[in-house]
Amino acid sequence: MPRLKIDLPAAYHFTTEIPIRISDINYGGHLGNDSVLSILHEARLRMLVEHGWTEMSVEGAGIIMSDSAVVYKSEAFYGESLRIQIAVKDFSNFGCDLYYLVRERESGREVVHAKTGIAFFNYEARKLAPVPPKFRQQFPS
């Protein structure tokens, strides 16, 4: 079976750091795969908050995750801190992709390459919503 490959962009729109908590560690003694999506979620929310948005209101529209892909590059351990860079790319009428480069902060070791697809969503009407123009303008390609 061919391995998944995520082509990461050259430039990023947002960077944050998140320490690895003991609850992020699995029975193998390293960062668990289930915790990776949670950490990416925290980073995505921090990016939105930096612009005055929430997951329920980006210029009036909510967001919903449509897909995710994660490629593990190395282990990460309790006590380490992750530096997460996010690029917003590949816009469509109703969404876009977020690309994540996750490195261990001190060494710069690559830990994860990831991509999540998000769609804008009207939670009251329970249907897709167009990408808000201000959101698209905030993240030029």
Record keyword descriptors for this entry.
about 140 residues; alpha+beta; Thiol Ester Dehydrase, Chain A; 2 helices; about 15% helix
Structure description:
The chain is of the alpha+beta class and 141 residues long. It has one domain (14-136): Thiol Ester Dehydrase, Chain A (Roll). It contains 2 helices and 6 strands; from the N terminus they run βαβββββα. 26% of the residues are buried.
Write the topology of this structure.
Elements: E1 14-19, H1 33-50, E2 62-72, E3 81-89, E4 95-104, E5 110-122, E6 127-128, H2 133-138
Antiparallel strand pairs: 1-3, 2-5, 3-4, 4-5, 5-6
The major pleated sheet works out as: 6 strands, antiparallel
Would you identify the CATH architecture? Roll
Mean pLDDT: 97
Number of helices: 2
Topology pattern, helix = H, strand = E: EHEEEEEH
Number of domains: 1
CATH superfamily: Hotdog Thioesterase
What is the CATH level 1 assignment? Alpha Beta
Distance between the termini: 32 Å
Radius of gyration, in Å, reads 16 Å
- Determine the CATH topology: Thiol Ester Dehydrase, Chain A
Model regions low in confidence, pLDDT < 50 over at least 5 residues:
none
Secondary-structure content class:
alpha+beta
Oligomer: single chain
Fraction of helical residues: 10-25%
Shape: globular
Q: Would you report the number of β strands?
A: 6
Share of residues in strands: 35-45%
